[in-house]
């Protein structure tokens, strides 16, 4: 979600321009108090908080692919 030159939302928008049907899963080690993106907080984006166990990641990826 938070990167040096662009944030996750900006990267998502760039990816969607190239591949509109791309499935995107955001991951961040920051707490929800630090992440101020309203869409993320309201659940409009697929998100998994770090750290996560492998099984949780697999389940979340499956959930995103099934949407």
Oligomer: single chain
Cα(first) to Cα(last) distance is 21 Å
Please tally the helical runs, counting DSSP H or I stretches of 4 or more residues: 3
- Number of strand segments: 2
Given helix and strand content, the structural type is: mainly alpha
Strand content: 5-15%
Residue ranges: pLDDT <50 for 5 or more in a row? none
Spatial order of the strands in the main sheet? 1-2
Major beta sheet summary: 2 strands, parallel
Radius of gyration: 12 Å
- Helical percentage: 40-55%
Net shape: flat
Order of helices and strands: HEHEH
Q: Tell me the domain tally.
A: 1
Average pLDDT: 81
In short:
The chain has helices spanning 8-18, 38-41, 54-66, and strands at residues 26-28, 47-49. It is mostly helical and 67 residues long.
Walk me through the topology:
Layout: H1 8-18, E1 26-28, H2 38-41, E2 47-49, H3 54-66
Parallel strand pairs: 1-2
Describe this protein's structure.
With about 70 residues, this protein is mainly α. It has one domain (about 10-65). It contains 3 helices and 2 strands. Strands 1-2 form a two-stranded parallel sheet.
